[in-house]
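User: Teach me something about this protein's shape.
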Amino acid sequence: MRLVVQGPAITMAHLSHLHGLVGGHAQFMQVGEHAYYLPVPEADYLGVKAFCASQQIDCALVQDGHRLQHMGLCVMDMDSTLISIECIDEIADMMNLKPQVAEITEAAMRGELDFSASLRKRVALLKGLPATALQRVIDERLRFNTGAQAWINTCKQHGIKTMVVSGGFTFFANHVQQTLGLDYAVSNTLEIIDGKLTGQVLGEIVDAQRKADELTKLRDQLGLSAAQTIAIGDGANDLKMMAVAAVGVAYHAKPVVQQQAMYALNVVGLDGVASLLSV
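Assistant: First, the predicted structure itself:
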């Protein structure tokens, strides 16, 4: 096992205190600008986790087998994972409906509502909106989360294929794929007729099970084993795909996701995934 700690707040005093908590003869090794690791035995590290949480430091006990050189596929959620917004909430804002739609989105991400039903309910509220509003969301509001491009670049350097699989929409997922240089993109399609949204979603909705299925399908197409896969997400509809991956990372995620994920990042950016798996 490796204890990986990271965050811009880390000081040598933090590392010294953590070393005292876990004991041992090894020293922390630096693996990133604000990231360090320490070889440790399997044990109960509740004290370490509590200390790190109090100091705004991400920490994780990482299995030795979880290294970038062993991986071949990384599948990621889009909204609030690769990008900082929930696209459907921002589309709704164009119709002055953001509070109503955002409330449904938040409940769905917490796992309190059926995702497919909640998505159809939200999309129905967008009926009549000019399709030009979608480009406005990209131009005015869509921003990538810290470290997104760095993480994708790291994947490329290690020959890891990348896919965004999103309960959001193709208009945005295709933009994210092209901008970051992802290999694959799967998402929902909004029906547009005469330049306006109809309030309908075309085809099978990308829900939690579909996300897991897309991961396993692509994994098999690439001839990879389950042990070579990574999944990153933030909402309850990401849990199934994280469960079928060897490495599941909760990124600034809802509590239900952090509780079930193998690893969680709450302080650092997506480039922190590389620090988790690089040593």
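Now, about its shape. The mean pLDDT is 94. The first helix runs from residue 12 to 22. If you'd like, I can walk through any region in more detail.
User: That's plenty for now, thanks!
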